[in-house]
Amino acid sequence: MRLRLIPFLFAVCLAAFVPARAAAQQSCDSLTSLEIPNATITSATTVDPPPDLSIPLPPSPIGPASTLTISTPFCRVVAFSAPTSDSHISFEVWLPVTARWNGKFEAVGNGGFIGQIGYSALAAALNRGYATASTDTGHASGNDESWALGHPEKLVDWSYRAVHEMTADSKLIVAAFYGKPAKLSYWNGCSTGGKQGLTEAQRYPDDFDGIVAGAPANYITHLQAGGVYTSWVRLKDGENSANFIPAAKLPYLHKAVLDACDAKDGVTDGVIGDPRRCNFDPKTIQCPGPDAASCLTAAQVHTAQLIYAGAKYNDGKQIFPGYQPGSELLWAAPGPVTNSIGVGFFRFMVFDNPDWDFTTFDVDRDTRAADQKLGSIVNAIDPNLKAFQDHGGKLIMYHGWADQGIQPENSINYYESVVSAMGGPQKTQEFLRLFMVPGMAHCQGGAGPNSFDALTALERWRENNAPPERLIAAHSTANVIDNSRPLCPYPQAAIYKGSGNVTDAGNYSCGNPNW
Question: 0.85 cut: is pTM over it?
Answer without folding.
Answer: yes
